[in-house]
Amino acid sequence: MAAAFVSIPCSFKPAQISAILPRRLSRPKAPNLTLSTTASDQSYFATANADISSHLLRSLPTTLHPSVKTPIHRLLSSSTPPTIAPSLCLAASELVGGDPNLAINAACALQLIHAVRHAHNAVISHHPLTEFSLGTELMTGDALLALGYEMVARTPAGDAEAATRLLKVLMEISKTAAAVAALEEEEREGKLAACAAVCGVILGGGNEEEVERARRLGMFAGKKELAMAEVELGLGFEEVRAGAVRRLLQEILLCHSVTISPERKER
């Protein structure tokens, strides 16, 4: 079943976690997902985010006291605006022939950054997202941010090269978490999506040129400048590996078209 805290845009329905996305979370390695093989009538955004949500909930410490666990679940279940960053992180890993399993912890961290930023905004505006005090929400958000870093650090790294890539991802995520605090919504989504694409490509084994191409692709996708995102996708990556990202871009375009006001369409 889909976790409650994933925000699905427009008409997307919360997806059941597909039977073809088996999990082996009890083992040291990441769950064996095959997101690119989901049915064509299933939203990639919804399916990927449902999987990320499930993995995130399973990653919460089981020994948490109810006084700590309840605010965490309430905050994660609050109505945060949708973000493409977590699903883009998984899709981007496939651009360079990588395994999205290795990107799922980074995707969870990006989801937490997004949720925490929204919680901080609610505290600043004195509009709490839960029944708890603003102070409790603030401290809960900070704890979730620390959990995000911990989850990235758990990503399997079997050799020195993999460990170096993991360190680069941690640096990207920490810089992004600090940067989005001072950005407006559109710029924040662009920055978060750029980080997502970069982290996916790094963990997928991409080179420096592919990483920088992914950064631009993610920034354009986050800002809904989809034509430019398609240019970066076509110029920098093999078409045979671009299916997941292209499908995600198409879903963004569909959602964006649906939400354009009638007045704007007439212009």
From TrEMBL:
GO molecular function: dimethylallyltranstransferase activity; metal ion binding
Gene3D superfamilies named among the record's database cross-references: Farnesyl Diphosphate Synthase
Keyword entries, A-Z: Magnesium, Metal-binding, Transferase
EC number(s) reported in the record: 2.5.1.1
InterPro entries referenced in this protein's UniProt entry, alphabetically: Isoprenoid_synthase_dom_sf
Cofactor(s) for this UniProt protein: Mg(2+)
PANTHER family for the chain: FARNESYL DIPHOSPHATE SYNTHASE, HETERODIMERIC GERANYLGERANYL PYROPHOSPHATE SYNTHASE SMALL SUBUNIT, CHLOROPLASTIC-LIKE
Protein's name according to its UniProt entry: Geranyl pyrophosphate synthase
Gene name in the database record: GPPS
